[in-house]
Records
---
Amino acid sequence: MAVLRYAPGAEVPAHRHEGYELIYVLEGEQSDERGSYLAGTFTINEPGASHRVFSRTGCVVLIHWQRPVVFI
Protein backbone atom coordinates (compact mmCIF):
# COMPACT_ATOMS: atom_id res chain seq x y z
CA MET A 1 0.00 0.00 0.00
CA ALA A 2 1.26 3.50 -0.78
CA VAL A 3 0.24 7.12 -1.08
CA LEU A 4 1.29 8.38 -4.52
CA ARG A 5 1.46 12.00 -5.63
CA TYR A 6 1.26 12.60 -9.41
CA ALA A 7 2.53 15.91 -10.77
CA PRO A 8 0.35 17.56 -13.43
CA GLY A 9 0.91 15.68 -16.70
CA ALA A 10 2.44 12.60 -15.01
CA GLU A 11 1.74 9.17 -16.42
CA VAL A 12 2.43 5.50 -15.73
CA PRO A 13 3.16 3.33 -18.81
CA ALA A 14 0.83 0.51 -19.84
CA HIS A 15 0.87 -2.33 -17.34
CA ARG A 16 -1.11 -5.46 -16.43
CA HIS A 17 -2.28 -6.43 -12.95
CA GLU A 18 -1.41 -9.90 -11.66
CA GLY A 19 -3.60 -9.32 -8.58
CA TYR A 20 -6.20 -6.81 -7.46
CA GLU A 21 -5.36 -3.11 -7.43
CA LEU A 22 -7.45 -0.86 -5.17
CA ILE A 23 -7.28 2.92 -5.67
CA TYR A 24 -8.84 5.71 -3.62
CA VAL A 25 -8.35 9.21 -5.07
CA LEU A 26 -7.62 11.62 -2.22
CA GLU A 27 -7.02 14.82 -4.24
CA GLY A 28 -7.21 15.89 -7.87
CA GLU A 29 -8.05 13.62 -10.79
CA GLN A 30 -6.53 10.34 -12.02
CA SER A 31 -7.40 8.95 -15.46
CA ASP A 32 -6.98 5.86 -17.61
CA GLU A 33 -8.52 4.56 -20.84
CA ARG A 34 -11.83 3.87 -19.07
CA GLY A 35 -12.35 7.37 -17.65
CA SER A 36 -11.37 9.97 -15.09
CA TYR A 37 -11.68 9.58 -11.34
CA LEU A 38 -12.11 12.60 -9.04
CA ALA A 39 -11.30 12.94 -5.34
CA GLY A 40 -13.49 10.58 -3.34
CA THR A 41 -13.61 7.91 -6.06
CA PHE A 42 -12.72 4.29 -5.24
CA THR A 43 -11.78 2.01 -8.15
CA ILE A 44 -10.81 -1.64 -8.44
CA ASN A 45 -8.70 -3.18 -11.20
CA GLU A 46 -9.12 -6.95 -11.30
CA PRO A 47 -6.35 -9.48 -12.00
CA GLY A 48 -5.59 -9.51 -15.73
CA ALA A 49 -6.72 -5.89 -16.25
CA SER A 50 -4.34 -3.60 -18.09
CA HIS A 51 -4.26 0.17 -18.48
CA ARG A 52 -2.12 3.32 -18.72
CA VAL A 53 -2.59 5.82 -15.90
CA PHE A 54 -2.19 9.60 -16.17
CA SER A 55 -3.20 12.81 -14.43
CA ARG A 56 -3.68 16.04 -16.37
CA THR A 57 -4.05 18.15 -13.23
CA GLY A 58 -2.05 16.13 -10.70
CA CYS A 59 -3.48 13.97 -7.93
CA VAL A 60 -2.85 12.11 -4.70
CA VAL A 61 -4.05 8.51 -4.45
CA LEU A 62 -4.03 5.79 -1.82
CA ILE A 63 -3.24 2.58 -3.66
CA HIS A 64 -2.96 -1.08 -2.74
CA TRP A 65 -1.46 -3.76 -5.01
CA GLN A 66 -2.20 -7.38 -4.16
CA ARG A 67 0.70 -8.45 -6.43
CA PRO A 68 3.31 -6.54 -8.45
CA VAL A 69 2.31 -5.16 -11.87
CA VAL A 70 3.88 -6.24 -15.17
CA PHE A 71 4.80 -3.45 -17.57
CA ILE A 72 3.78 -4.21 -21.17
---
Amino acid sequence: VCSKCSGIDIVRIPGTVGGYGAGNNVNVGSWLISYIKVSRYLCSDCGFSEEWIDRAEDIQKLKKNFKDS
Protein backbone atom coordinates (compact mmCIF):
# COMPACT_ATOMS: atom_id res chain seq x y z
CA VAL A 1 0.00 0.00 0.00
CA CYS A 2 1.36 3.42 -0.97
CA SER A 3 2.31 5.50 2.05
CA LYS A 4 1.47 8.72 0.18
CA CYS A 5 -1.93 8.08 -1.46
CA SER A 6 -2.95 4.65 -0.08
CA GLY A 7 -2.99 3.26 -3.63
CA ILE A 8 -2.62 -0.49 -4.03
CA ASP A 9 -1.22 -0.71 -7.58
CA ILE A 10 2.46 -1.05 -6.65
CA VAL A 11 5.18 -2.05 -9.12
CA ARG A 12 8.42 -3.62 -7.84
CA ILE A 13 11.49 -2.74 -9.91
CA PRO A 14 14.24 -5.18 -8.90
CA GLY A 15 17.71 -3.89 -8.12
CA THR A 16 20.48 -4.70 -10.58
CA VAL A 17 24.26 -4.82 -10.62
CA GLY A 18 26.14 -4.11 -13.84
CA GLY A 19 29.66 -3.36 -14.89
CA TYR A 20 31.38 -0.37 -13.26
CA GLY A 21 28.69 -0.22 -10.56
CA ALA A 22 25.83 0.42 -12.98
CA GLY A 23 22.35 -0.38 -11.74
CA ASN A 24 20.46 0.25 -8.54
CA ASN A 25 22.79 -0.97 -5.80
CA VAL A 26 25.10 -0.09 -2.91
CA ASN A 27 28.79 -0.98 -3.03
CA VAL A 28 30.16 -2.65 0.12
CA GLY A 29 33.35 -4.07 -1.38
CA SER A 30 35.54 -4.11 -4.45
CA TRP A 31 33.89 -6.97 -6.35
CA LEU A 32 30.54 -7.14 -8.16
CA ILE A 33 29.45 -9.84 -5.72
CA SER A 34 29.93 -7.26 -2.94
CA TYR A 35 27.20 -5.02 -4.31
CA ILE A 36 23.83 -5.03 -2.56
CA LYS A 37 20.78 -4.72 -4.77
CA VAL A 38 18.25 -2.02 -3.94
CA SER A 39 14.68 -2.58 -5.17
CA ARG A 40 12.40 0.30 -6.07
CA TYR A 41 8.69 0.27 -5.36
CA LEU A 42 6.56 2.56 -7.49
CA CYS A 43 2.94 3.53 -6.90
CA SER A 44 1.19 3.44 -10.27
CA ASP A 45 -1.55 5.72 -8.94
CA CYS A 46 0.47 8.76 -7.79
CA GLY A 47 4.06 8.08 -8.91
CA PHE A 48 5.56 7.98 -5.42
CA SER A 49 8.59 5.70 -5.21
CA GLU A 50 10.70 4.22 -2.42
CA GLU A 51 13.85 2.15 -2.33
CA TRP A 52 14.23 -0.90 -0.10
CA ILE A 53 16.87 -3.48 0.74
CA ASP A 54 14.99 -6.78 0.37
CA ARG A 55 17.27 -9.23 2.17
CA ALA A 56 17.91 -9.13 5.93
CA GLU A 57 21.51 -10.33 5.49
CA ASP A 58 22.19 -7.40 3.15
CA ILE A 59 20.90 -4.97 5.79
CA GLN A 60 23.41 -6.46 8.24
CA LYS A 61 26.24 -5.99 5.70
CA LEU A 62 25.26 -2.33 5.29
CA LYS A 63 25.15 -1.81 9.05
CA LYS A 64 28.64 -3.30 9.36
CA ASN A 65 30.12 -1.25 6.53
CA PHE A 66 28.45 2.11 7.22
CA LYS A 67 27.93 2.07 10.99
CA ASP A 68 30.35 4.93 11.65
CA SER A 69 29.55 6.94 8.51
